[in-house]
Amino acid sequence: DDTNNGTVPTPLINYLDTQYYGEISIGSPAQMFNVVFDTGSANLWVPSQSCSPFSTACFTHNRYDASRSRTHVENGTGFSIQYASGNVRGFLSEDVVVVGGIPVVQVFAEATSLSAMPFIFAKFDGVLGMGYPNVAIDGITPVFDRIMSQHVLKEEVFSVYYSRDPKHSPGGELVLGGTDPNYYTGSFNYMETRETGKWEVTMKGVSVGMEMMFCAEGCTAVIDTGSSYITGPASSVSMLMKTIGAQLDESGYKVNCDTVKKLPSVTFHLGGQEYSLSQEDYILWQSQIEGDVCTVTFRGLDVPPPTGPIWILGANFIARYYTEFDRRNNRIGFATAV
Ligand SMILES: CC(C)(C)OC(=O)N[C@@H]1CNC[C@H](C(=O)N(Cc2cccc(Cl)c2Cl)C2CC2)C1
Questions:
Q1: How confident is the model at residue 1 (pLDDT cuts 50, 70, 90)?
Q2: Can you say whether the dihedral through the CA atoms of 335, 232, 208, 253 is positive or negative?
Q3: How far is the CA of 241 from the centre of ligand 1 (A)?
Q4: Can you give the pLDDT at residue 4?
């Protein structure tokens, strides 16, 4: 369909505030897939029809069948991604990919093996990387770059809205070519990306309540739509958790739900502005049979130098701050989400 004034919305589904994904199609006739639009990576991969039947994570998801697509072009180059939490292996193919109604001829990966962890928990089928080309594995031109070169977008930007509770509909929205005023109030505050080539900025500090506790001499913050939580250096996060009285168990940091309303806000100092998360922004409150469970949506993650140490601001940050990713000006803008 034609893009309305050069901006193209794609509704997203919100699964438990931890996975936000939208639908794309690959091939002719269209084969539908649910993908995470992930600013922390720059490749498109979906499970392959030819993945091994023993790969549980593969056959519980939609799979691309090259033999059913008349626009499929053979490639066959090997492909593998090593995530912190698992890996994906397969081979490259080329076909028509449609995102928000915009078709592009795209080289993508057919995953023939998906590590059970974490992909058996994934409600989405694959990942559509929205990162810069130099993050792309095998030097493949990313989808958004292919769309930009068609000059159909009003602006060379994309924006992300993540809803906060799963009952909301839509669970979120990706806009290619602009922003959606229905989902933010006030104006945007912009900051330059650190090195053009990653969706990351310089952070000037992290404070808890009124006290500056971390990153006082500056550090790097990655704005990552594909991460569920906020991660920081393990030592900093464990100190932060001690301050709020959180205990680490096998599934993350937990607090006693009775203490939640007294928890301090956590503030990220970015681009001359302060972005605070209150306890309702960073506590995942789940009512379970054995009682309420309050999970703190922070995780310790040590990323080795030169990339690290870094803080990763994921879905729980984006749900509070509507985010515009600007490829034209290599900058990121935040506005208060509705
Ligand atoms: C270095 C390079 C490989 C490019 O790094 C990355 O790609 N880094 C990616 C950065 N963004 C998050 C990605 C990730 O962790 N997952 C797994 C995941 C996330 C949330 C919930 C679930 Cl269930 C899952 Cl499986 C992909 C879904 C995006 C890794």
A1: very low
A2: positive
A3: 24
A4: 65
How many whole angstroms separate alpha carbon 99 and alpha carbon 144?
A: 9
What values do phi and psi take at 116, rounded to 5? -50, -45
3-state secondary structure 235-284: HHHHHHHHHCCCEEECCEEEECHHHHHHCCCEEEEECCEEEEECHHHHEE
Please tell me the distance between residue 143's alpha carbon and the centre of ligand 1 in angstroms: 17
161 C-alpha to center of ligand 1: Å? 18
DSSP letters, 46-112, are: EEBTTS-TT-HHHHTS--B-GGG-TT-EEEEEEEEEE-SS-EEEEEEEEEEEEETTEEEEEEEEEEE
pLDDT at 261 over 60: yes
CB of 284 within 6 A of ligand 1: the answer is no
- Kindly report the pTM of this predicted structure: 0.96
Cα distance between the two ends of the chain: 28
Does the pLDDT at position 52 exceed 80?
yes
CA atoms within 13 A on the CB side of 79: 27
CB 227 less than 6 A from any atom of ligand 1 = yes
Using the predicted structure, report yes or no on whether residue 167 has a pLDDT greater than 80: no
